[in-house]
Amino acid sequence: MKVLVIPPHYDDEVMLCGGSISKWVRQKHEVTVRFWEMCNADESPRQEEAQKILNYCSSVSNIPLVVEDLVDDICKYQPKIIITSHPNDFHAKHAEIGKAVQQAVYYVSRKISWDKIEGYDTPMLLFGTTADIPLGFKPQVYSEFEMIDIQHKMLALQKYDWFSQAPRSKYRDMVHDVVWLFRQAEDFGDVAGCKLAEFFEIGNPEPIMKI
């Protein structure tokens, strides 16, 4: 299985689905994280250290993100699953990239890019969560993982120096906290009927219907 993760910033790939990345890599699936210009270049060394923990493949473009390039990426990587931030995220850049990826998947679903790739099904688009739960977030798909995976997620965030940062959330006092991170995975696991999990919302556009 091929998975393409498109985060809005460095460290968001870990927050969106770090536990799932760890699990999929352990299961020998191909996980690629695609970074764009909006990622802070100063964080690049930390990203490389985090990548060593989660062992994913990565690609960086130092150009502004445009939907046409996202369509090309989807055709290039041919992922079965795409994970990105929610279009209703509180952070404007998170919402921007979520909407752009959704539009790109729509174009692919309309077969605009079929002249490049034949026999490739529309990938499943999943919106993840970072610190705050976006307004209207609908947990529809869960990814169960093991203790080693949440440990990898914590270690990767540690490489980003995430736990030493001041809390950025308006709604929680301790966002950058190991206990909070573990409890979030436990809470999602309780909803899913397992021990630890990450939740996602399906972001594929509704098909155009003739009435």
Question: Low-confidence runs (pLDDT<50, min 5 residues)?
Answer: 169-175
Total number of strands: 7
CATH architecture: 3-Layer(aba) Sandwich
Rough outline: globular
Which value, in Å, is the CA radius of gyration? 17 Å
CATH superfamily: LmbE-like
For the record, the count of structural domains works out to 1
Distance between the termini: 36 Å
Instruction: Give the strand line-up of the largest sheet.
Output: 3-2-1-4-5-7-6
Question: Which class best fits the helix and strand makeup?
Answer: alpha/beta
**How do the SSEs run, as a string of H and E?**
EHEHEHEHEEHHE
User: Considering DSSP H and I runs of 4 or more, what fraction of the residues is helical?
Assistant: 25-40%
Quick one: CATH class? Alpha Beta
CATH fold call = Rossmann fold
Strand content: 15-25%
Largest β sheet strand count, sense and barrel closure? 7 strands, mixed
User: Counting H and I runs of at least 4 residues, what is the number of helices?
Assistant: 6
What's the overall average pLDDT, rounded?
85
